[in-house]
Amino acid sequence: MPVDRTTGLRERKKARTRAAIQSHALRLFREQGYDATTVTQIIEEVEVSESTFFRYFPTKADVVLADEFDPVIVAAFREQPMEMNVIQALRAAFSQAFARMGDDERAVQEDRMLLVMSVPELRAGMLDQFAQAMGLLAEIIAERTGRLPNEVSVRTFAGAVVGAAMAAMFTIADDPSSDIAVTLDQSMACLEDGLRL
């Protein structure tokens, strides 16, 4: 059966366009501030049409909140050996996902995180993303442990992982020179250690 190379090319082109829009927007947000930057300025900077911008990002906030990281984490988590317990597998998955990122991708994640923590509108929007992340984590944790994603224990575990990620975000907001991968791993290590103080 012949391979449809045009589909792969089209998907790569879409990914490049999306990444370019997000990259230019984040730079403008850094330089001018989130509130002072308009969608029109982003469109002009990237040289795309208004319809192209809104096809990828329905709102200006979505440029910051949209995250392609979750599927990477899920794939890395599923690769971990079953001998690892859930928290060990998640730590390894997070580490692998960050290790596979290029410097530009990591910089985008850090920019996004700092913006979310500093702009009230984005912080409020992040609540939905945390809820989605918790649901996704509950699904893959349930898959690995043979339990149901809606069990209280599974949801609690997923919520604790999301809480660890939030703690890492606050730490990075306090000290932007912090390494995102190291800080997240430190938060996850606290969970693995049973949250002893």
The percentage of residues in β strands lies in: under 5%
Which of globular, elongated, flat, extended, rod-shaped describes the shape?
Answer: globular
Query: What is the makeup of the main sheet?
Result: none
**Total strand count, please?**
0
CATH superfamily of the largest domain: Tetracycline Repressor, domain 2
Oligomer: single chain
CATH class of the largest domain: Mainly Alpha
| CATH-defined architecture of the largest domain | Orthogonal Bundle
Distance between the termini: 59 Å
Q: How many individual domains?
A: 2
Please provide a written account of the structure.
- By secondary structure, the protein is an all-alpha fold.
- It folds into 2 domains: 5-59, Arc Repressor Mutant, subunit A; 67-192, Tetracycline Repressor, domain 2 (Orthogonal Bundle).
- It has helices at 5-32, 39-46, 50-56, 60-65, 69-79, 86-99, 103-118, 120-145, 152-174, 180-192.
- The longest helix is centred in the N-terminal third of the chain and has 28 residues, at 5-32.
- The protein is globular.
- The mean pLDDT is 85.
Write the layout of secondary structure elements.
Layout: H1 5-32, H2 39-46, H3 50-56, H4 60-65, H5 69-79, H6 86-99, H7 103-118, H8 120-145, H9 152-174, H10 180-192
Helix pairs in contact: 1-2, 1-7, 5-6, 5-8, 6-10, 7-8, 7-9, 8-9, 9-10
Summarize the structure.
The chain has 197 residues and is mainly α. It contains ten helices and no strands.
